[in-house]
Design brief:
The protein is α/β, with parallel strands linked by helices. It has one domain: Rossmann fold, CATH 3.40.50. The chain is 44% helix and 10% strand. The protein is built from eleven helices and five strands. Helix 5 runs antiparallel to helix 6 and helix 5 packs across helix 7.
Length: 252
Amino acid sequence: MEKVASPPSAAEEAAARPEAVRSYAALLSTMRSGSTLVKALLGSAPDIAHLPETNFRAVLRSPARQAALERAHPKGILLLKRPAWFNEAWTYPRVPRERSVRCVVLLRDAFPTVRSVARMLGGKRGEQWSGLAGLRLLTRLYWAPVTRRLLAFAEAGEHPVAVVRYEDILERPEEETLRLFHFLGSAQAEGVRRYGEPENARWKWGRDDGSPRIRTREVQPPRPLGEADLRRKAAVDRLPGVAELRRRAGFA
């Protein structure tokens, strides 16, 4: 008796189906907020392209760049991510209106973000920023204005938006990724905690994460803070305006 093959799943059909019209999504965040991890998790779906870091503004404003990207990555959902640079603290994210795009707003609490940014700067300059005065300055001049603009963008309703906290991704990766898969219109029916590297590219420090932690290819539990960092965190959280932003973002 001839064996009857089982029908393909919705995810397999989505991966094999040619897409005449592509769906674009943007991952918006500060630097050092876990955007490389979140992009990798979402890119594990069969219908979401796992791209290296890509300037969403440049792509969404250029039909030629869109056509080139679509030729190189035939999956139906193109997820573009580029965090805010220092010089964009009061202007990010400025998502173009020329094309409809679903936006994932990724938030991370103030202290772990600026502590990681200070370490990213490296060398003598990094040591300067990693002290309490440097962390306070990074919070006031980078984390606070970018986070304020991200929250305002999410509330404005110009594009469909889903807000996710990095801390929730670490605690509940399957639950949070499944919510984001549904939001993006993916056929992926289960949440994930494991992921691979970008398609046709490698993680590169300075653009993506590139650390040993991300190279485990699995969500890692949050690291506990030592006594010195707990004191610095308390000082950062008390800065004017920061407590209110943390409350609005769900951290307080």
